[in-house]
């Protein structure tokens, strides 16, 4: 219906469309009803509007002494079966979940499955390549993470920040992920078969003879540079593709309520991927046993695994395209301001000045240092127990499968933890688990000899027991990370504005993640040089682990307070927007002026209107 309003104040009308239709006689014309000698009370809808200039009736129609407006109260159609103002239509559901939500959650779960399937294969393969290679050992890992992985991660973050300012989100996604897929395919079919020709082994032997065995680790990086490049690209797949690309995309298309419900469940499918990928690694590891002499079984296995990585990468790109094409983005708060584009240095200064981002960075760095302090020591024991690539890779396949099973169970429990105890408790579980299991692992290494006779009864040596306990420590820590730590970290990004999300995630996930691992590696290098060996440093490493975990817990508590405050602010803004029923004001010239007032609120005086106190007026 259209009505010409002579306004002095707020129209407060009953939301009863049936009664409104009975009061408006259909036989009367609109103008007769509006300008009847006895005004009719209209109770069919609740209208909000801006006060507009007075209008008068002319014989030839409506002609204002000042500019007139027509208020189109479109929701009056509710009397004809249309929804009332503020009333939302019921959306179709399946198993209690809206179909629109399922169109987001299922593809995201499949993407996470494919990404972690690839990461498991890459993670297990990179360790086999650099640890079991000729002239290398587990001692290469601290140097590799510090002097190769960290600089490349920083370089990528700077490049990503530049690209984020000039590329669209879709173009940025493809620009980042496609080079990874091409490299892993090229490594399996080109770089590894040519490794004997492109690795400077003779030069590395000469340098080792001159510099001495203390430089075995740094020289191993030069000796097997293509394997080290694979190691770094596999590490970047975890920090870039998982943390920046996937979680950044998930945060873009989901709401906080959807995240609380479904983020923990993403890992269910993803950790089924861990189980299957672990079986895949073990299958290719055992495949080499059945090949004849003189055949490079590892090269055949590597080609097979890299082919799977490329195929999964293509599936990831297809799912990303499908979601962007067929899934609508959620409505964010209109009051949230977009920050202007910033350069690299401005972005870094902004992130450093943010306490919220600083606490998030502390969580990521603390996890990296803590897990690295335990993991490198465990891998040195692992190579001592399983020196051949075949045995090492086979054990890593079993390790990945165990991690997948444990994480699957933790994922089932995580939704209960989020619902029952909230974000703050969920964020403190991972550091607690890592602390307790880490103390157990270091205690067995330090005090394992007295248990040797007891262990012998079970057919185990102290070394094998340390390998198994270290594996359990890694399994429990990683399962807590995947099921609780990662969802908590990603939820913390959602209330932030888009600029902080993009650049904050690039700085935290790409730089802080390897910075944490490199920090742990630097600590180990310092301890080895100071105390002579990793074993002699074990008591001190345990003490450092406790300090790091306590700092982690403190940052988690601080972030919980800030996250809760941001969530309350966002919910309040959205509630205010839902309460603000907008009615477009159309002038006679046909231009539209949206009403800025809301139900039960009175707009300010328009220019030229009376300044006297407004009183309600019926049509």
UniProtKB/TrEMBL annotation:
It is a multi-pass membrane protein. Keywords: ATP-binding, Chloroplast, Membrane, Nucleotide-binding, Plastid, Transmembrane, Transmembrane helix, Transport. Residues 588-619 are annotated as: Disordered. SUPFAM superfamilies: MFS general substrate transporter. Pfam families: TLC. Signal peptide: none annotated. The chain crosses the membrane at residues 105-122, 142-160, 172-191, 229-250, 262-281, 302-323, 356-374, 395-417, 423-446, 458-476, 540-559. GO terms for cellular component: chloroplast membrane. One of its GO terms (molecular function) is ATP:ADP antiporter activity. It is found in: Membrane; Plastid, Chloroplast membrane. InterPro entries: ADP_ATP_car_bac_type (IPR004667), MFS_trans_sf (IPR036259). It comes from the Eukaryota. Its main location: membrane. Belongs to the ADP/ATP translocase tlc family. This is ADP,ATP carrier protein. It comes from Gossypium tomentosum.
């Amino acid at each position: 219906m259209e009505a010409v309003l002579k306004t002095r104040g707020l129209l407060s009308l009953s939301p009863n469309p049936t009664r409104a239709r009975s009061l408006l006689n259909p036989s009367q014309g609109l103008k007769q009803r509006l300008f009847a000698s006895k005004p009719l009370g209209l109770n069919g809808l609740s209208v909000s509007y801006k006060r507009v200039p007075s209008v008068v009736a002319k014989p030839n129609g409506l002609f204002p002494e000042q500019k007139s407006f027509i208020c189109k109260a479109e929701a009056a159609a509710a009397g004809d079966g249309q929804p009332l103002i503020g009333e939302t239509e019921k959306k179709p559901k399946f198993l209690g979940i809206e179909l629109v939500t399922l169109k987001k959650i299922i593809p995201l779960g499949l993407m996470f499955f494919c990404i972690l399937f690839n990461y498991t294969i890459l993670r297990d393969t990179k360790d086999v390549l650099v640890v079991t290679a000729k002239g290398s050992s587990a001692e290469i890992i601290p140097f590799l993470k510090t002097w190769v992985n960290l600089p490349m991660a920083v370089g990528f973050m700077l490049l990503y920040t530049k690209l984020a300012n000039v590329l669209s989100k879709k173009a940025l996604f493809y620009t980042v992920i496609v080079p990874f897929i091409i490299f892993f395919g090229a490594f399996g079919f080109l770089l590894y078969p040519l490794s004997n020709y492109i690795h400077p082994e003779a030069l590395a032997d000469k340098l080792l003879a001159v510099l001495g065995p203390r430089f075995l680790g740094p020289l191993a990086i030069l000796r097997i540079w293509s394997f080290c490049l694979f190691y770094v690209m596999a590490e970047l797949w975890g920090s870039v593709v998982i943390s920046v690309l996937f979680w950044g995309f998930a945060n873009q298309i989901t709401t906080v309520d959807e995240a609380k419900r479904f983020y923990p469940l993403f890992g269910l499918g993803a950790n089924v991927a861990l189980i299957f990928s672990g079986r895949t690694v073990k299958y290719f590891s055992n495949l080499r046993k059945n090949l004849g002499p003189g055949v490079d079984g590892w090269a055949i296995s590597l080609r097979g695994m890299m082919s799977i990585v490329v195929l999964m990468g293509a599936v990831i790109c297809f799912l990303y395209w499908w979601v962007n094409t067929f899934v609508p983005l959620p409505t964010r708060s209109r009051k949230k301001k977009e920050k202007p584009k910033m350069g690299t240095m401005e972005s870094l200064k902004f992130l450093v000045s943010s306490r919220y981002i600083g606490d998030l960075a502390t969580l990521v760095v603390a996890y990296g240092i803590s897990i690295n302090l335990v993991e490198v020591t465990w891998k040195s024991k692992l190579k001592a127990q399983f020196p051949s690539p075949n045995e090492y890779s086979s054990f890593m396949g079993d390790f990945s499968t165990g991690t997948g099973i444990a994480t699957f169970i933790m994922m089932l429990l995580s939704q209960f933890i989020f619902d029952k105890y909230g974000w703050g408790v969920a964020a403190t579980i991972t550091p607690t688990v890592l602390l307790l299991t880490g103390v157990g692992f270091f205690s067995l290494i330090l005090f394992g000899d007295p248990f040797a006779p007891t262990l012998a009864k079970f057919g185990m040596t102290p070394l094998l027991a340390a390998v198994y306990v270290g594996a359990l420590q890694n399994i429990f820590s990683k399962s807590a990370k995947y099921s609780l730590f990662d969802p908590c970290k990603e939820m913390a990004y959602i209330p932030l504005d888009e600029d902080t999300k993009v650049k904050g995630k690039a700085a935290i996930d790409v730089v802080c993640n390897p910075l944490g691992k490199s920090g742990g590696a630097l600590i180990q290098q310092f301890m080895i040089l100071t105390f002579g060996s990793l074993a002699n440093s074990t008591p001190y490493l345990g003490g450092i682990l406790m300090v790091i975990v306590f700092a982690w817990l403190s940052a988690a508590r601080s972030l919980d307070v800030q996250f809760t405050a941001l969530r309350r602010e966002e919910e309040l803004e959205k509630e205010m927007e839902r309460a603000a029923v907008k009615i477009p004001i159309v002038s006679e010239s046909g231009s539209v002026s949206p009403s800025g007032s809301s139900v039960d609120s009175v707009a300010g005086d328009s220019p030229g209107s009376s300044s006297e106190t407004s009183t309600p007026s019926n049509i």
